[in-house]
Design goal:
This protein has 99 residues and is mainly β. It is elongated and about 45 Å long. It starts with 10 loop residues before the first strand and ends in a 5-residue tail after the last strand.
């Protein structure tokens, strides 16, 4: 039957990056470098003033690396599923080096 089956969809994916201030308040971190790689896709973005970086990736498993000068780098693995209907949202907190 033509047209049956699961469509390979591009998934809107948001990476949110925060830092803990010296007062213990979590704040968006602008200018953090976010890299997403896997499944034949590689993308790199900097977070905006709200600490967000936006990617559009096909379903699969990806390595996410978040870094910024003066902070400890974070590496994680995420999986994007084909049938998810809502945008993916992933949250990371960077810790100042020596802090």
């Amino acid at each position: 039957m033509a047209g049956c089956g699961v469509r390979w969809q591009i998934k809107d994916t948001w990476i949110y990056v925060y830092e803990n201030s010296s007062q213990g308040i979590t704040l968006p971190l602008q200018g953090a470098l976010v890299s997403v790689a896997g499944e034949g896709y590689t993308g790199t973005r900097y977070t905006n003033e709200d600490g967000k970086a936006f990617f559009q990736v096909p379903p699969g498993t990806y390595t996410v690396q978040v870094s910024k000068s003066g902070y400890t780098t974070v590496t994680d693995t995420i999986t994007i599923y084909t049938l998810e209907l809502t945008p993916g949202r992933y949250y990371y907190v960077l810790v100042p080096q020596g802090g």
